[in-house]
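INTERNAL AUDIT FORM
Audit reference: QA-55
Scope: verify that the stored structure record matches its stored sequence.
Auditor: D.O.
Record contents follow.
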Amino acid sequence: MKLLALLFALTLGLMAKPQTIVFAAGCFWGVEKHFENLPGVIDAQSGYAGGNYPDPTYHKVLSYRYDTPQGVVNYAESVKVTYDDARISTEDLIKSFWELHDPTQKDRQGNDRGNNYRSAIFYTTPEQKAIALRTKAEYQKLLSKAGYGRIVTEIRPLKTFYPAEAFHQDYLKKNPNGYCPNHATGVKFPQKTKTMPQNTQALTPLGGKEILVIDAENCPYCEAFKKKVASNYHGTIPMRFAHEDRIKGFKLKTPVIGTPTIYFVVDGKEVAAHTGYLGPKEFYKALGAFKLGTNSEAYDIAFNRGTEPRFCKKYAIFKNVGDGVFVDKLSGDILFDTRDRLITAPGNFLNV
């Protein structure tokens, strides 16, 4: 099995075609967030590109944004995007860049003013250069029709990319309410005709208790919930994910004003709901209230008293129990194996 897994991993590695391109479109916090949430993007890293002095820092780049010494070219706040061109095309990625900001503004984006906020594409392959120039001409026609001026975006080969300080990496993941202005013009490229995805059938109630999670595309908090909570959940209450437009037949009173929205449902009717990301601790406390009831002894032990004391009455039931495992009622995880019991005295058992 290990050999098969290794061969599978090597096959995937050979199939993947990672490429790199660097974009500058204003404050790099929001640009990084935008690209790292696109399917097919492997990594997005904030940094500095397009300057000509060594070892730029955030404060030095800021100090040169209005008054650059003679002979010095300042850096632009940039994002290095590593992507798999088998999953997202270079053209779609660059078109996303054009639509992300206003490329007609020189040395600024909105209220962010200075040459460090200039618009730029730093390509690493001839194909990227050709696509950047072609899509620039296409987007110029669309912008002109909408009343915008001339595109001033630099399109140059990437010479050096300096990663930004750790403080700036994944800034909006660490600070969800942080500064993230929208500088998009609203002008879009014509959409390609897309084949409807197969999984578009309505999601209807299962009956009994279930957990319904409303998610959305390009939602980092949905992905965090799936990774940190749902992927480790093995409880008996079914958990299902769906976009809001697929939900049919449920009686939900809490509106979807953000994603994820997590509903605790009985027979299709909402009992409780939470909007926004829930970490494992918060999720299991909400699940405990739903499954056990806040007035139950089990809930009190799990979330108020922490655990039962040693030699409590519950252990008496273990005396005549055969080998097996005890499973947590909420997560579905194995708590302990009865074969690990240690007999200390008649009728007394300890876990080891």
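Auditor finding: record pair retrieved intact. The radius of gyration is 27 Å.
Action required: none
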